[in-house]
Amino acid sequence: MKNKEIKILLSAPRGFCAGVERAIEIVEKALVKYGAPVYVRHEIVHNKFVVDNLKKKGAVFVEELEEIKDKTRPVIFSAHGVPKKIPLDAKNYKMTYVDATCPLVSKVHREAENLNKSGYHLILIGHENHPEVIGTMGQLPKGSIDLIQDENEAKNYKFEKNKELAFVTQTTLSVDDTKDIIQILKRRFPKIREPLKEDICYATTNRQMAVKNIAKNCDMFFVIGSRNSSNSVRLVEVAKKSGCINSQLIHSKSEIPYDLIENSNTIGVSSGASAPEILVENFIENLKKKFKVSIDEVEIIKEDVVFKVPKKLN
Hints:
The chain is of the alpha/beta class and 314 residues long. The chain has 3 domains: 5-16 and 202-299, 3-Layer(aba) Sandwich (Cobalt-precorrin-4 Transmethylase, domain 1), CATH 3.40.1010; 18-102, Rossmann fold (3-Layer(aba) Sandwich), CATH 3.40.50; 104-199, 4-hydroxy-3-methylbut-2-enyl diphosphate reductase, catalytic domain (Cobalt-precorrin-4 Transmethylase, domain 1, 3-Layer(aba) Sandwich). The protein is 39% helix and 19% strand. It has 11 helices and 12 strands. Strands 10-9-11-1-12 form a 5-stranded parallel sheet, with helices on both faces. A 4-stranded parallel sheet has the order 3-2-4-5, with helices on both faces. A 3-stranded parallel sheet has the order 7-6-8. α8 (202-215) runs parallel beside α9 (230-241). The radius of gyration is 21 Å and the shape is flat. The relative contact order is 0.19.
């Protein structure tokens, strides 16, 4: 195996986005300011390595505020955003809370609220039970926003109310899939109002474009990320659609398929927006133990977005 030469096309940009970096920084700064334990409602970002690391530093992860026995301790809301009810519950419990919702998700929340106040009935394009979708739908009164997950649901969506329609989208979707759903909605409801600016975030778009750019030249494609990370799973789909059928997710329990890699000459590597670079480095180090590896980093765009942490933590 060791004599086999493999070329790695390393996709860039990849890995952490500004929203993820901010969320992790919020937990770390809260631990410095308040001491341990600091509670976090839901995984701060969808990555086991990141979560385990923060646990070691004193973060305790819960799914609901009710699980927190000591309500004098601070709680942080995850980068995916939370329904309106959660901050209200925290206030009722007299808890200190820090909201680590990604600013680009907050933008969609405000957009949805403003459209609702202007009398529009909303459609959210997204995936059921994803925390971001639960958070966005939880900004509005029940019955004023409907979820559409795929083209089929868009074709069969029934709307008989005397209101105007508008749509917003989850920030981590596949740009291409969303485009197809939107085309169906526009065809069926020509007056539907769309966001002034694309809801799918810059990092999702950039990572998908970077994967598209190299996938067609790869025999296999690997995306480092978690199974519950929407943007990581989408990257695998993008690689497949862009011409590399043998694309797969490498998550914390994955076995690296060395036998399949041995039959490849060129492999592509990217990582989801919540996956730290060390996981990419570890993956490549493992390959180097078995093969002769050359690496070509293919960058399509430089990212310089930074989001500040809330003032109360400085």
